Amino acid sequence: MDINFTSKDYSSYINTANADSLKSKLSNVDSEGDEKMLEACKEFEAYMIEQVYKQMEKTTKMFSDDKDSSTSYDTMFGDMRVQEMAKRATDQGGIGLAQQLYESMKRQASGITPDELASQRAAEELEKKAETEAAKVASAKTDEA
Predict the structure, then answer these.
(1) What angle do CA 17, 23, 28 make, to 5 degrees?
(2) DSSP 68
(3) How many angstroms separate the CA atoms of 70 and 60, rounded?
(4) Which one of 12, 51, 56, 131 has the largest count of C-beta atoms within 10 Å of its C-beta?
(5) pLDDT band at 14, cuts 50/70/90?
(6) Whose CA is closest to 26, among 143, 109, 127, 91?
(7) Where are the domains positioned within the chain?
(8) Neighbours of 37 (CB within 10 A)
(9) What is the pLDDT of residues 39-95, one digit of tens each?
(10) Contacts of 86 (CB under 8 A, 6+ apart)
(11) DSSP 4-60
(12) Burial, 1: exposed, middle or buried (Cβ in 10 Å; 0-12, 13-18, 19+)?
């Protein structure tokens, strides 16, 4: 009885394992600190970038003239290469998904509603405008003296 385990099977197994790992990390953020929550958000962003990149690769391979362009290296380590590229992209700022997800989760954990958030942001903007006006007035008084 031979068991054939192709790289495609391994790839889908790894993707499922990664998704399950991310789900468990995101579901346990209530008990973990902010740092771990941000790390889970970054891993989620890396996973999303990885999936986008894999789909992008499929379309470029579909239109490739060279049908035998995939080497054994690509077959064996292609997924690892894509995962590392996605992780590096996220570590260098990513697409902003991790930060938005982190802020949203933090607001939800603290019980801030969207209306309260809008009110808070409006108050902060008014405060900044008041500080700017006060600085202008102080600058004008200094110039007059």
Answers:
(1) 130
(2) T
(3) 12
(4) 51
(5) low
(6) 109
(7) 7-111, 113-145
(8) 20
(9) 899 999 999 999 998 888 888 766 655 555 556 676 677 788 888 888 888 888 888
(10) 46, 47, 49, 50, 53
(11) ---HHHHHHHHHHHHHHHHHHHHHTTTTS-HHHHHHHHHHHHHHHHHHHHHHHHHHH
(12) exposed
pLDDT tens readout for residues 82-99: 888 888 888 888 888 888
Residues present in the chain in total: 145
- The Cα 30–Cα 33 span in angstroms is 8
Q: How far apart are CA 73 and CA 30, in angstroms?
A: 41
Q: How many CB atoms lie within 10 A of CB 43?
A: 19
Question: How far, CA to CA in Å, does 140 sit from each of 126, 131, 135, 145?
Answer: 21, 14, 9, 9
Residue with tokens 């200094």: 142
